[in-house]
Amino acid sequence: MLQILCTGTPHSIGLQHGKTASLEISRSIEFYASLFQKLSKLDWPAVTQLALTYQPYLSSNWPQYVSEMEGVAEGAGVKYEDILALNVRTEIAFGAFSDGCTALSWKGEGGSVLAQNWDWNNDQLPNMICLKIQKEDGLNIQMITEAGIIGKIGLNSKGVGCTLNALKAKGVSFTSLPCHLALRTVMESSSRQDAVSTLEASGVASSCHILVADATGGTGLECTSEDIVRLEMNSDGIVTHTNHMVVKHKESVVEAEDWLADTRFRLERIDELLDGVKGKGVTTEAVESLLLDEKMGCGASICRKETEEKGSLATLFSIVMDLEKTTAKVSMGRPVAPVEKLVLDP
């Protein structure tokens, strides 16, 4: 797996990202161009034009992200709007993409752990990268992301981490943070509370669940284009989530019916597995073992295997973060048979 260390100004960080991952970025563009055409009947020029709708808001409110994306484009030798489109792909898709993931945060005796199996199209696995950023203010960030996308799943040197679950509710906002850039703001934050406050102030442009955690525990944020509703830790210090809403939103928020039939099964299953280990104290090893689970329900498992029914949807990586030690263990591919393992240590 390509690991990229980027330092300096936002533009410099993007430039190093783009130069080093130019091949992977070109393949990511090809992958999403094909997917948008197939699922949304949009060709790539139409996709990039839609992406530019976000430019006024981002330029005015998040110029550092614009500068970094410009650097990525320059380094990779592609147009800026190509990189912008990758970073706002969720908002352009209007819910057409079906990435399904299982995430959990667990704070208790022994530590604070944040973890996820990230499920997506197998064809995108070769275009995943490990992005390591050293900012000028001394903050370090490390994440697993798709080449060209500047925010995804990972943690920073202050022990603040995030995961992502896809949700589907109607609506999109062009004056709020696109979800992948919202993830980046979490990893720019000094604490869980700081991250939550930032996202609640900015809003998130489309529906998703972002699980934010640090050494003090986790907070789930169910986001739509109209609101953000918190999902707090239960009495055992646990937050779990899959791909449907579990808290009440505004009456005007309309969620799609279970677009992944297995979402409720996976949530029940991860809760059941946690019930079996929570009395033994929090350990990364215990959480790693939960993400290996292959018990099937409604056509899928927590450790998702590609099936004919689901097309090429499978677990592309598993990540378990120890937020007190500010480290993470990553298994690329299905964690029962990883193609590579690595450690993040911002």
TrEMBL record:
Q: Name one Pfam family in it.
A: AAT
State the InterPro entries in the record: C45_proenzyme-like, Peptidase_C45, Peptidase_C45_hydrolase
Top-rank taxon: Eukaryota
- Peptidase C45 hydrolase domain location is 106-335
Enumerate the NCBIfam families for this protein: C45_proenzyme (NF040521)
Q: What is this protein called?
A: Peptidase C45 hydrolase domain-containing protein
Question: What species was this sequence derived from?
Answer: Cadophora malorum
